[in-house]
Write a structure and sequence with these properties.
alpha+beta, oxidoreductase activity, acting on the CH-CH group of donors, F420H2_bilvrd_red/Heme_oxyg, about 170 residues, coenzyme F420 binding, oxidoreductase, Nitroimidazol reductase NimA-like FMN-containing flavoprotein (Pyridoxamine 5'-phosphate oxidase superfamily), globular, Pnp Oxidase, Chain A
């Protein structure tokens, strides 16, 4: 994203009468501050695959990494469309967030250096990666890094209930 604000729409069908749309700044902050995300991809035979992971918000997108031989890497090689979700995991409070987009490989080593530093700031020294050959390298070996810029995002606020869609 180039700093452009999304079109924001409150879906009144699924929102309380007194609800207001969740501002994008609040949703973006929730995406940045979350510790755990759920990545949904599609296997080559069409079956879904969902897995928890950690990620960082940087430069208008979520970044995550995965080992070269992992299921999510194989799925994304075939179909880069995915969704990342995170939230309060509660019925009556908080905001759940969904970000839909395309997982594009991030290989520029200057960018990867900034993303690697974002991992350390967010998750601590145990998540320090070396950057070389267009990838992260750590105790688990080589990890591919993906950038998911939002195409569509949703915020599901509770108390009052409000379903907000963001179109980029």
């Amino acid at each position: 994203m180039t700093g452009q604000e999304p079109v924001t729409e409150l879906d009144r069908r699924y929102s309380a009468e007194d609800a207001a749309p969740t501002p994008w700044a609040e949703a973006r902050a929730g995406l940045a501050e979350a510790e755990v995300y759920w990545l949904s991809t599609v296997r080559g035979d069409g079956r879904p695959h969902v897995t928890p992971l950690i990620a960082v918000w940087a430069e208008g997108a979520l970044y995550f990494c995965t080992g070269v031989g992992e299921r999510k890497a194989a799925n994304l090689a075939d179909n880069p469309c995915c969704a990342l979700t995170t939230g309060a995991n509660a019925l009556r409070e908080g905001v759940d967030l969904v970000l839909e987009g395309r997982a594009e490989p991030a290989t520029d080593e200057t960018l990867l250096g900034r993303v690697a530093e974002a991992y350390v700031r967010k998750y601590g020294e145990g998540w320090r990666f070396a950057v070389r050959d267009g990838a992260f390298h750590g105790e688990g070996g080589r990890a591919l890094v993906y950038r998911v810029a939002p195409v569509t995002a949703f915020a599901f606020a509770k108390g009052p209930y409000a379903q907000t869609r963001y179109r980029f």
